[in-house]
Amino acid sequence: MFSYINLYGKYPPGLFAHECREGKLGLSCEGVPQKDVVKSGVQRARSSSLALITLMCGLVALFFQ
């Protein structure tokens, strides 16, 4: 499995070597601490402001056409 990851994946060498172990059923990453994901409204704010900017640019383009 490591050889497949190294050949076809775009990962840096040795990325999984210290965390995952190769076994008969593939890679086992048991015991690796999971990161807590904290949800924030930053992504939502970015997407809504991007939509607003796109809408405003479209309206300005239609107005000056």
How would you characterize this protein structure?
45% of the residues lie in helices and 9% in strands. The chain has a domain at 1-31. By secondary structure, it is mainly alpha-helical.
Q: Give the number of DSSP strands.
A: 2
Major sheet summary line: 2 strands, antiparallel
Q: What is the CA-CA span between the terminal residues?
A: 58 Å
Shape: elongated
Query: What is the percent of helical residues?
Result: 40-55%
The tally of helices reads 2
Beta-strand residue fraction: 5-15%
SS-based class: mainly alpha
- The chain-level mean pLDDT equals 73
Q: Which strand order spans the largest sheet, edge to edge or round the barrel?
A: 1-2
Unreliable residue stretches = none
Order of helices and strands: HEEH
Radius of gyration: 23 Å
Transmembrane segments: 45-64
Domain GPI-anchored protein LLG1-like: 1-27
Organism: Aegilops tauschii subsp. strangulata (Goatgrass)
InterPro entries: LLG1-like, LORELEI-like
